[in-house]
Design brief:
alpha+beta, L,D-transpeptidase catalytic domain-like, 4 domains, 19% strand, disordered N terminus
Length: 560
């Protein structure tokens, strides 16, 4: 293909003028000059693979250009995924998670059955090394451009930190070459994208690690519960509540069916028998109850607000009436006083000399009396309306608080439908529980022999028996950064010397040994059991929570 670009006379002339036999000119520079010459002469856009290869050679991020329309073609050999069968997303079982091995430059995807896919990667180069630790998918986008590196394309992007680390399709040269992201082959990136959901666990390891089946008494089991009684008895009068209850009942039936539980909806075969619900199905029923309560609370709050607004308007009108009555009384009194003064001025001298009082106008006196009586009545009415308005406002406040509490119960029930994550940090001396990327609970935890390292271990509930009697756990133990094998070196006589082994005092615990040293606080296993189902996880580490954690992340633990 490249030879066809040199058929034009201009291209041959330009290339012939280059010092082709100079021993001091590296072959790589000659190749670059040749490509540049072809681009200048022909002006034709290079194939995508060539553009990406040239970009990775000099600068990974080239200014973004709109690609010319062309037919789709198979990815170049350097971008093809290894010839390994992978399961479609709809054929996976239980939890799907991935392990990235930086030294081996590959990623392996697992579900409850074991390994389901594997591919080569390209991680961060020197100075931009990909961090190791425990992450999860916190964002997905079919096509994304980098906010940090000149809008570099990041197709099939799956973000694992808010600081810019993600998995995405890119050039795979066979060695670390990215700015910290984990590049995937073009053929594999969409497969991984379809296999993972938001929150899927991504483990980036300084060595090749594999999940192992584990059982331990400290690992919690799910708490199966009866459906909330109020959810079965509550009947909302509003049509919207009836429709919502119907739709949520359908959701609950689907969730319980997926978990192998009897159908609790009216008309179901087992509707007459109380059934135990797994934590996810229970959360669906709990949300149904909370939604019904929220609708009723919202209706009550709305009605109370309307009453408070109406009584408030009446109280304001009564207050204005008092002002009007006071003004009317003042006018009547002023009129009476003016008339009395005029009468005294016009009175005969004999009346003035004898000191006899003038008789006020009876009609004006009656007007003053009526005005004073009206004022008393308006003041009484105003006091009544003010008290009614105050009480109406208090009723509305209580109704509004009840509506907010009902909304919080809906949010809590929705949160309980997501997978639960637990983190035990020896550094912080605490156990933390998060669900739906929100903090749920934390408490002090005791680690026996605290001077010895625990290591970092990830325990995942990959599958659960439908009756909740057994949880299938796997454990992945991260190799510590300081326990890498020291490269072999030559002895004084040319013989290969043995690589030094890591110190026994620095060797972390096994996955089982780490659990043996943890003393859970009272109530921890029960709380976790109320939330635990397939996808739940427990992380144990010497390290603290990472600064990368935020409002919309699961636990992030950096081991380097």
């Amino acid at each position: 293909m490249l030879a066809s670009h040199f058929r034009t006379p201009a291209a041959r002339s330009l290339l012939s003028s280059a010092p082709s036999k100079s021993p001091r000119l590296p072959k790589l520079v000659l190749a670059g000059l040749s490509i540049a010459a072809v681009s200048l002469v022909t002006g034709a856009p290079q194939p995508a693979a060539a553009q990406q290869g040239f970009g990775s050679l000099f600068s990974y991020n080239q200014p973004a250009k709109k690609p010319a329309a062309r037919k789709k073609r198979a990815p170049a050999a350097s971008q093809a995924a290894p010839a390994e069968a992978s399961k479609p997303a709809n054929e996976t079982k239980g939890t799907v998670y991935a392990v990235v091995s930086l030294p081996d430059q590959h990623i392996t995807v697992y579900d409850a059955t074991g390994r389901i896919a594997q591919s080569r990667i390209s991680s961060g180069k020197a100075g931009k090394r990909t961090p190791t630790g425990v992450f999860s998918v916190i964002g997905k986008k079919r096509f994304h451009r980098s906010n940090l590196y000149s809008g570099a394309p990041m197709p099939w992007m799956q973000r694992i930190t808010w600081s810019g680390i993600a998995l995405h399709a890119g050039v795979i040269p066979g060695y670390p070459a990215s700015h910290g992201c984990i590049r995937l082959p073009n053929a594999f990136a969409p497969k991984l994208y379809s296999l993972t959901d938001m929150g899927a666990r991504i483990i980036v390891s300084p060595g090749d690690v594999k999940p192992e089946t584990i059982t331990h008494t400290i690992l919690p089991t799910p708490k199966m519960q009866l459906a909330p009684t109020a959810a079965q008895q509550a009947a909302a009068p509003e049509k919207a509540a009836v429709e919502l209850a119907s739709s949520d009942a359908s959701d609950a039936a689907k969730a319980t069916a997926a978990a192998g539980e009897p159908d609790l909806t009216p008309g179901g075969e087992a509707s007459q028998q109380p059934a135990l619900l797994n934590p996810i199905a229970y959360a669906v029923a709990l949300k149904k109850q909370a939604e019904t309560e929220r609708l009723a609370a919202d209706a009550t709050s709305k009605a109370a607000l309307e009453i408070a607004q109406k009584t408030g308007a009446e109280a304001r009108a009564a207050t204005e009436a008092v002002s009007d009555a006071e003004a009317a009384l003042k006018r009547a009194e002023e009129k009476l006083a003016a008339a009395s003064q005029e009468d005294r001025a016009n009175a005969p001298e004999t009346t003035a000399s004898t000191g006899a009082a003038t008789v006020p106008d009876p009609e004006l006196v009656a007007d003053v009396d009526k005005a004073r009586e009206a004022l008393d009545q308006t003041r009484t009415f105003d006091a009544q309306k003010s008290q009614a308005a105050f009480e109406a406002v208090e009723v509305y406040k209580r109704a509004d608080e009840a509506a907010k509490a009902a909304a919080e119960r809906v949010a809590e029930a929705e949160r309980r439908r997501k997978q639960v994550s637990v983190f035990v940090s020896k550094k912080e001396g605490k156990i933390f529980v998060r669900q739906d990327w929100k903090a749920v609970w934390e408490a002090p935890v005791t680690i026996r022999d605290p001077e010895r390292p625990l290591g970092t271990h990830i325990y995942t509930a990959v599958d659960v028996e439908t009756d909740g009697s057994k949880v299938h756990w796997t454990a992945i133990s991260m190799p510590p950064e300081n326990a890498k094998a020291t490269p072999a070196r030559r002895g004084s006589k040319g013989a290969m010397a043995e690589a030094s082994a890591p110190s026994a005092s620095l060797t972390p615990e096994t996955a089982t040994g780490a659990l043996d040293r943890i003393e859970m606080p009272e109530g921890a296993r029960e709380l976790i059991g109320e939330l635990l189902w397939t996808g739940g996880s427990l992380i144990v580490s010497d390290h603290p929570r990472s600064y990368e954690m935020g409002e919309y992340t699961d636990f992030i633990v950096l081991t380097r």
